[in-house]
Amino acid sequence: MSATIKRGTARRPVQPKRRAPPKVSVIDRMITALPVSEATLRRIATWSIMGVVGAATLATATYLGVPGMVGSAIGEGIGKAGFRVTNIQITGLNRMDHNVIYRIAANQPSMAMPLVSLEKIRQDLVAHSGWIEDAHVSRRLPDTLIVHVVERKPSAIWQKDGKLSLIAANGTWLEPVDPEAMPDLPLVIGAHANEQEPAYRQLLDVAPALRGQVKAATWVGNRRWTLTFESGETLQLPQGDEAASKALIKFAQMDGVRPLLGKGWLGFDMRDPTRLVARKPGVTTNKAITDPTAGATPAVIEAKQSGAQAQG
Fold first, then answer.
1. Residue 158 β-bridge partners
2. CA–CA separation, 56 vs 26, rounded Å?
3. Number of neighbouring beta carbons within 10 Å of residue 24
4. pTM beyond cutoff 0.70
5. 10-residue block means of pLDDT along the chain (312 residues)?
6. Contact of 158 with 167, CB cutoff 8 Å
7. How do 144-151 and 132-140 pair as beta strands?
8. Which residues on adjacent β-strands are paired with residue 218?
């Protein structure tokens, strides 16, 4: 008798279910792509939060009238948390000494970032030197001050009491000038001539043909100009910007048609708008010269003896 052996149905192994990979957000991908570590990002975030909270706290304390000592304590606390000036970056320098600007910017009661007065730094820089026209100061958290200096440009040389100085376009004194190394700039002479430098430049603009021939300009009696040309002659102009401009234009026209400069004259006087008075060595009588620019109506050039003294 044989026994029948029954075989059970073979069971298939149960396959574990595959879990879908976690979704990565766009922000996570951007953070991963940044060239900094996660720890650095955490520190930056912490600094930013502390900075915002500290600034808000300090502003609230100031608004509510909290005593300065408490506000300073808050500012120092923020400074100890990492918001303290340890670096000063300076730009815009051409003439000024970098170390001088650095010392002025660093001269603060506290270097805690919230307690550094940007406006005080700007005012101290502008007051320090005529070279500094303006300055822009800003913070770059957590530890850097950015100082951009706007320097003035030299516009002329000012001679007063035998001393030469470099001045800016608005007449601001910049620095002494060595007579042996004078820059190629216009020369203005006399008391308050530096204050008239803008008006002087405007005067020369009306007669561009003469601008390159003017060697110096003397401010006489704090009311009018006497020009000195490269060829040695002087030209006395009337007082008043409009009258001086008209006289200089007239002189340029006359010199353009019949050259006056470089012809042996000592000087010209146009203080009287109706005539041009000239001085020439050895002349003992007046000589009437027709103005070639006047058409049928001649203007008179009076040639006077060289010994005549010019009036103020």
1. 165, 188
2. 31
3. 9
4. no
5. 52 58 56 55 59 56 44 64 82 91 90 84 93 92 90 94 93 92 92 93 94 94 95 95 95 92 92 85 55 47 49 46
6. yes
7. antiparallel
8. 189, 226
